[in-house]
Amino acid sequence: QVSLVESGGGLVRPGASLRLSCATSGRTLSNLDIGWFRQAPGKEREFVTVSRRNRNSPNYADSVKGRFTITRDNAKNTAYLQMNNLKPEDTAIYYCAATAANLILSSTTQASQYNYWGQGTQVTVSS
Predict the structure, then answer these.
(1) How confident is the model at residue 54, as a pLDDT?
(2) Do 48 and 36 touch, CB atoms closer than 8 A?
(3) pLDDT, tens digit, 9 for 90 and up, residues 88-112
(4) 39 and 92 Cβ atoms separated by less than 8 Å
(5) Angle at the Cα of 69 from the Cα atoms of 87 and 74, rounded to 5 degrees
(6) What local confidence, expressed as pLDDT, does residue 106 receive?
(7) In this prediction, what percent of the chain has a pLDDT beyond 70?
(8) How far apart are CA 94 and CA 37, in angstroms?
(9) What is the SS3 assignment for 94?
(10) Which residues of 101-118 are buried (b: 16+ CB within 10 A; e: fewer)?
(11) Mean pLDDT over residues 5-24, rounded?
């Protein structure tokens, strides 16, 4: 069983940065495709980004391209989401998700493709 634990959320002002962490256990990170989703109040859960184990280029939602960066430290079994130039519309609960399957690009944005989920961490961007 894979366990994911997110941390690093908080309340920040527009334009600020945050780094979220996702610590994995139960399976080495190098054997997982790992992504981030978010859910704002009253909205559907939406894809943010994914890092596939066998691909050097992550995939990002258009709304975060150029501002968010996903990285993975396989030695620490931890994935990170660096979020820069945060906007009020980035306010949401952020979830780390993982799968042992090798995702094809077209399926990486679908929450149903991920077997394992963290509990979520709140990010609030407000002046």
Answers:
(1) 81
(2) yes
(3) 999 999 999 999 988 988 889 999 9
(4) yes
(5) 140
(6) 86
(7) 100
(8) 6
(9) strand
(10) eebeeeebbeeebbebbb
(11) 98
